[in-house]
Amino acid sequence: MNYLKQFKIPFKGLSLGSHFFDWKIDKKFFEAIENPDVLDCTLVVKLELEKQERMMILDFTISGFLNVSCDRCLETFNLPVKIREKYYINFGDEYKEESENILVIPESEYQVDISELIFDYISLSIPIKKVHPPDNHGNSTCNSDTLSKLNELTKQKGNDPRWEVLKDFKIDNNN
Question: Which pTM was predicted?
Answer without folding.
Answer: 0.79
